[in-house]
Amino acid sequence: MYNFDDIANRRNTYSYKWDVKENELPMWVADMDFKCLPEISLAIKKRLEIGAFGYSYTPDEYYEAFISFWKRRHNVTYKREDMVFSTGVVPSLSSSVRALSKEDDGVIIFTPVYNIFFNSIRNNKRRIIECPLIYKNDYYEIDFDLFSQLAKDKKNTLLIFCNPGNPVGRIWTKEELERVAKIAYDNGIIIVSDEIHADIARSDMSYIPFYSLSDIAKNNSISLISATKCFNMAGIQASAAISHNKEILKKFDRDLNTSECAEGNFFSFEATIAALNNGDIWLNELNQYIDNNFLYLEEYINKNLPKLKLTKREATYLGWINIKAYSNDSVKFRDFIRKRTGLYLSDGREYGEAGESFLRINLATSKKNLIDGLDRLNKAIKIWENENN
User: Fold this and answer.
1) Per residue in 311-331, pLDDT tens?
2) Which alpha helices (DSSP H) does the chain contain, by range?
């Protein structure tokens, strides 16, 4: 029904991703190339036709769209009184850190993980406490022994949790989530669950909202959700934060308002409502397209680049590739690939020390671009081998 081969041309449009050199192919930042669901564009066009773009308040329909969508797709019922608006998951991360911890507190993160987690902790004068995931057989698991040890330190008061995991591609099981929830609760640690990648998942899998786990989980956490990632409208800047704990939500909301991140722009509400109310089929087809791209990536690597190891993927549209056979310096290797072929990937080092020998590739693009990108990667590695042997 939808044509995901027909991607948007975003060169020379102030695009963070695509304003690169003409010969370069950006496959780095988590920003899809696909055109949005048509109903999103229609909703924005309808707002545009008003002709004046003043202040807006958050309508009830905005929250109702989230509640309906998560009920349909994940069988969880959010309560309206447990929800607040935020301009984005990233501002919410920083507000969570400020509101729910003190300066010099330790904030635990399971690494490798989204690089902004580090910024949100460091910029707010908290201490980054890395709890590296266990990497085995091209798959990641939580090191519960280490997490339990770190959680017992009274100076560590917060856990920022990526659910699903970016860049490791994990959908955490119910058992894993329950263990995380119990360890945190038993040691007085509040959980901030970043769930922006919630609906980019393998077609045969679905993530579990942290809020839905148990009374312990919903009362000792705040969940950050948005339609922007899975519907490719990050520039719209709209999200929601959810907690059943009134004190947590009150503290968070207070900081959010102090930071002036609690008011939506003129287009954000209508775009989000249109996406969540009309996007189920589009999203299902998107996930199937991404599944096919990952299958092509896996087959290409196995056939042409067997020294690379592709991490097993359950969620996100981001491939996580082990380059250890060639280099332990992901920054140097990424720069080499870009300089020699124009292929622009993300270096694993920015996701923590545990990502030192990895590269991240964005597969939310056309099959044509994927083929081009992998051929460039193949070319770069052949040059690397010739120059380093």
Assistant:
1) 999 999 999 999 999 999 999
2) 38-48, 60-74, 89-100, 115-122, 144-151, 174-186, 215-219, 246-258, 268-278, 280-304, 330-341, 367-388
Residue 66 CA to residue 41 CA, distance in Å, equals 19
CATH number of the domain bearing residue 230: 3.40.640.10
Q: Supply the angle between the helices 330-341 and 367-388 in degrees, to the nearest 10.
A: 110
CA–CA distance, 270 with 113 (Å, rounded to integer): 31
Task: Convert the pLDDT of each residue in 24-75 to its tens digit.
Answer: 999 999 999 999 999 999 999 999 999 999 999 999 999 999 999 999 999 9
Q: Distance between CA atoms of 292 and 275, rounded to whole angstroms? A: 23
Domain of residue 47, residue span: 42-278
Q: Is 1 part of any domain? A: no
Q: Is the pTM of this model over 0.85?
A: yes
Query: Could you tell me if residue 124 is inside a domain?
Result: yes
pLDDT tens digits along 126-161: 999 999 999 999 999 999 999 999 999 999 999 999
